[in-house]
Automatic annotation (TrEMBL):
<feature type="domain" description="NADH:flavin oxidoreductase/NADH oxidase N-terminal">
    <location>
        <begin position="4"/>
        <end position="341"/>
    </location>
</feature>
<dbReference type="InterPro" id="IPR013785">
    <property type="entry name" value="Aldolase_TIM"/>
</dbReference>
<keyword id="KW-0521">NADP</keyword>
<dbReference type="Pfam" id="PF00724">
    <property type="entry name" value="Oxidored_FMN"/>
</dbReference>
<protein>
    <submittedName>
        <fullName>NADH:flavin oxidoreductase/NADH oxidase</fullName>
    </submittedName>
</protein>
<dbReference type="InterPro" id="IPR044152">
    <property type="entry name" value="YqjM-like"/>
</dbReference>
<keyword id="KW-0560">Oxidoreductase</keyword>
<dbReference type="InterPro" id="IPR001155">
    <property type="entry name" value="OxRdtase_FMN_N"/>
</dbReference>
<keyword id="KW-0288">FMN</keyword>
<keyword id="KW-0285">Flavoprotein</keyword>
Length: 369
């Protein structure tokens, strides 16, 4: 039996299989952070993919929390209403649950769309604004320095995460993922490379993870009881020879998040420092997921250059992770779960309109939703 196509529980939420569509920024929102037709077709693609769960792209809780001027936001009720209408359409196609990743880019905000390649905009440029962070250290030396948040401003960030979570629940999302990875604001507070504060939000490990824990707790307090909340983290800064965020730190954070009621830990890496040296290859982040899985009881999701069905199955069979997240592989082949089911001889539920397309002679069995 294929483990990849067994069901899994993320708290109160049951997934039909262990394939997760990872959050992927599309840089296709309006300048007001609202959904467009691009999101309609993209979410519909995800809904028909056969995956167990889709988590939509990093969605900013404040205007200045967007990575770019073309990122989604959930800081007002118009954004919520438009997402609610779109999500209702998408959910009419399949029963697959949808989650949303709530985020704040911190000092890595105010950038151009990646394919336009202009980097970060300064506050006085079109499409630019003043960024914020734990300290006034820029990500790149040529970037405009971020504003170091005061304690009152930190409380505003926490409240805005909670308010966005309330909107996400009302919009119909089945799960919230807190984005504490890839060098964005929460990660900036956690890493000693970007956090030079001397108050209760800086210095010791306990102080540096405080904001992530307080955001998670505030969201938990704001949403219905037992509503599932997961967290995505960067397991390491990939910065050898200096004091930085590492796997040991990530284990400690994961334990604390588990105590707060997180339903999973989604393990990525990097993004905090411009001089990171990432050793990229197949399964390059899986050992981080494995290290964390050994120390917590909640599910751990592995991600990163997992592109083949047998590869994903092997990770689960060897107990290195509990679920598999796919990003670029799903963009390249939106029906990746169908092909994986055929390869592994597994059952997968798909829209009945597609039942006739099952290839002759394959061992998998398509079933209607």
């Amino acid at each position: 039996m294929s483990l990849l196509f067994e069901s899994i529980q993320f708290g109160s939420l049951k997934l039909e299989n262990k394939i997760v569509v990872a959050p992927m920024c599309q840089y296709s929102a309006t300048e007001q952070g609202e959904v467009t037709y691009w999101h309609e077709q993209q979410w519909a693609n995800y809904a028909l993919s056969g995956a167990g769960l889709c988590i939509i792209e990093a969605t900013a809780v404040q205007p200045e929390g967007r990575i770019s001027y073309a990122d989604l936001g959930l800081w007002n009720d118009l954004q919520r209403a438009q997402m609610k209408a779109l999500l209702a359409k998408v959910k009419s196609l399949s029963p697959m649950p949808f989650g949303i990743q709530l985020a704040h880019a911190g000092r890595k905000a105010s950038t151009d769309k990646p394919w336009d390649g202009k980097g970060q905009f300064k506050p006085d440029e079109a499409h630019g604004w003043q960024t914020i962070s734990a300290s006034d250290l820029p990500f790149n030396p040529t970037d405009h320095p971020p504003h170091a948040l005061s304690k009152d401003e930190i409380q505003k960030v926490i409240q805005d995460f909670a308010d966005a979570a309330v909107r996400a629940v009302d919009a119909g999302f089945d799960l919230i993922e807190v984005h504490a990875a890839h060098g964005y604001l929460l990660h900036q507070f956690m890493s000693p490379l970007s956090n030079k504060r001397t108050d209760e939000y800086g210095g010791s490990f306990e102080n540096r993870i405080r904001l992530t824990l307080e955001v998670s707790q505030a969201i938990k307090n704001a949403v219905p009881r037992d509503y599932p909340i997961g967290v995505r983290i960067s397991a390491t800064d990939w910065m050898d020879g200096v004091e930085s965020w590492d796997v040991e730190s990530s284990v400690g954070l994961s334990k604390a998040l588990e105590q707060l009621g997180a339903v999973y830990i989604h393990v990525s890496s990097g993004g905090l420092h411009a001089n990171q040296e990432i050793k990229i290859g197949a399964n390059y982040q899986v050992p981080f997921a494995e290290a964390i899985k050994k120390m917590v009881q909640i599910p751990v999701i592995a991600v990163g250059l997992i592109i083949e069905a047998e590869q994903a199955e092997s990770i689960l069979q060897s107990a290195q992770a509990d679920a598999i997240a796919l990003a670029r592989a799903m963009l390249y082949e939106p029906r990746w779960p169908w092909h994986a089911a055929a390869t592994l001889g597994a059952h997968i539920k798909i829209a009945p309109q597609y039942l006739r397309c099952q290839p002759h002679g394959v061992k998998s069995l398509f079933e209607p939703f």
